[in-house]
Amino acid sequence: MVPTLIYSGSRNRTLSVLHAIDLAREVPGQSLKPKSSCAKRYHSCTADGDKQDCISDFAAGNFPLISCTMALGLGQNWKRVRMIMNTGRGDPTAIFQMVGRCGQDGRPGLAILLVEKKRRGGKNQISDFVQGCEQSNDDRMDALAITPVCLRIAFSIDNLHGYIHLSFDDPLYIQEASREKELNFPACCCSNCKESAVDCLLSNLQFASNSTFDDIVSDNFVTDLNPSDKRPTKRQNPRRQPVPDHLREMVADFKSNLLSDFNAFHANQVGEGATVQGPDVFGEEDADVIIGHLKHIHSTKDLRKFIGGECIAGQLAWLFDRIVLFKKNLESGSQFNMQKQKRAAPDDANDIAITTTRSKRQKTTLPARLPSTLTKAKENNKTKKQLSAEKQALSAQQKKENHDRLNAIKEKRRIQVAEIIKEVHDNIAKSRTSN
C-alpha cells in the first residue's frame, strides 16, 4: 500500500478512520490490534512510548498508514509519504501544512480533501460570499470547498493574504497565475484544473501501490480489472403495508384466531399456571406487526427481524406455519379460519350476476362491491355523521375492553407474584423455626 497520512479533527475520528479501513479491506477488527501491519493511530493522548514506536515503525516501512490528528503535523519530514487525506473541518492554513507532508522526495504526491457537499448553516454557493469582506475560518473552508479556481493558487493567496478567492477576475489571482507562468511552474494537477481526470483517479486508487502510484497520479495507469465499489449499501427498512378494505374482515379473523390459538399453544408448552402468560409473550402489538409486514415474511429469519426471538421453544416456527397457511388462503381467494368456522351466506339482495366477455356461458355470482358506508346508510337510513359516531363509540368500547383485559392480566400476575413471595417467606420462617 502507498504510505499515507490520514488527518482527522478529533481523537475519536482517528479510530473511526481505522474502522473504515477495515471495512474496505474486509477484515473487521484488525484496527484494534496494537501491532497491526496496516494502520496505527497517533494523537495527543497517545502514550509517549506508543508515539515513538509508531514514528519509528512508519519510518522503517513496517506499516503504510497512520490515522492521526494535527499532533503529527509538524516536525516530521518523511520522504516516503506519498499521499495525504484530510477529514473534518479546520482552516486552510493547517490543511496546507498537512498537504506539505507528502511529496518531499521530489516525486508527485496526492492530497485528498474530504469536504461536505452542503454544510448546514454554511455558505454553499458563490453568491453567498460578499467580495471584499473579511473571511472567518469557517468562511475560508466553505470557500475552499466550492471555489472553481486553481487550488494551488488559492492556497498561495490564503497564506499571503488570509482569504480564499472565488473568481478568476481577482487581481491577486491574476498576479499569482502570471508569476507561476514566468517562473515555469509545472502545470497544476488539482481537481479544478483537471476536472475530467478526477473520477478516473479515484476509481484507480484501490489499485494503488508503490509501483503503480506514479502512473495513477499522472493518469497513465491502465488495467483490465474492474474497480469494485466498497461502499456499503444502504439498507431500507420495509414499511408497514395498510390492509385493503375488502380484506379487513379476513385479517381481523386471522388476528383473533392467531392470538387465541397462540395462548393455547403457550399453555400447552408452559402450563396454564405459569407466571408469564401467552399475551405477555405474543400480544396484539406483535400480531399487528406481522399483519403489516406479511409480504416481507418469507422465513422464520424474516419473522425474527420484526417480532424478535423466541420466548418459548418452537414459537417462530408455529407462527410462521400460520402465516404461510393464511397467505395460501389469500391467494386462493378463500377466507382463512383456523377453527374452520363457516361464514354466513351473503345476502341475495346484494348479489349480482357477472357474465365474462370471453364466454357467455360462464357466469359467476359475486357480492356487489358497494361501499360499506353507503350500503349501511341505505339499510339503516343513517347519515354519515351518525355512522361515524357509532364507529367512534365502537372503537372506544373496544379500547376499553382491551384496557380492562390488560388490567385483569396485570392484577392476576400481581396476585401470583404476591403468592410466590408469601410462599418463599413462609418457607424461610419454617426453616428458621426448625433450626
CATH topology (level 3) name of the largest domain? Rossmann fold
Can you tell me the residue ranges where pLDDT is under 50 for at least 5 consecutive residues?
335-379
CATH hierarchy class name of the largest domain: Alpha Beta
Count every beta strand, where a strand is a DSSP E run of 2 or more residues. 7
The number of distinct structural domains comes to 2
Structural category is alpha/beta
Judging by the overall fold, what is the CATH architecture of the largest domain?
A: 3-Layer(aba) Sandwich
Main β-sheet description: 5 strands, parallel
Q: Strand arrangement, largest sheet?
A: 2-3-1-4-5
Output the number of helix runs.
15
How does this model look, in words?
A five-stranded parallel beta sheet has the order 2-3-1-4-5, sandwiched between helices. The chain has a two-stranded antiparallel sheet with strand order 6-7. 46% of the residues lie in helices and 7% in strands. It has two domains: 4-218, 3-Layer(aba) Sandwich (Rossmann fold); 246-341, no CATH class. The longest helix has 51 residues, at 384-434. The protein is an alpha/beta fold and 435 residues long. Helix 3 (92-99) links the parallel strand 4 and strand 5 (110-113). Residues 224-246, 378-407 are annotated as: Disordered.
